[in-house]
Amino acid sequence: xxxxxxxxxxxxxxxxxxxxxxxxxxxxxxxxxxxxxxxxxxxxxxxxxxxxxxxxxxxxxxxxxxxxxxxxxxxxxxxxxxxxxxxxxxxxxxxxxxxxxxxxxxxxxxxx
Length: 112
Prior knowledge:
Blueprint: H1 5-10, H2 30-48, H3 53-89, H4 92-108
C-alpha cells in the first residue's frame, strides 16, 4: 500500500537542514509515467476490443516492468539523497527512522 500524502506530511522532511534540499525532485519521471498511462489506456482498449488474453497479459507485464523501472529509480534517488542525508547528519533518531521506513517499505513489496 503506498504512503498517502497525509501520512508523508506528518513525517519530518527527508533531509537534514543546511545539507541538501528538503526533498529530491522527481519531475524527470513524469514523461515516463505519462507513457505508462498511455500503455494502460491501450490495455483498456484491448479489453474493450476483446483481444486475446495472452496479448493483454503481455501488455500488463510491459506496464509492470515500466512501473518497476520508475520505482527503482525513485528508490535509488531516495537512498542517495534522503538516506545519505540522514547518515551524514549522524542523528541516530533520523537514521533509525530511515531504516524503519525502508524496512516497512520492503516488507510490503510483493511480486507475482
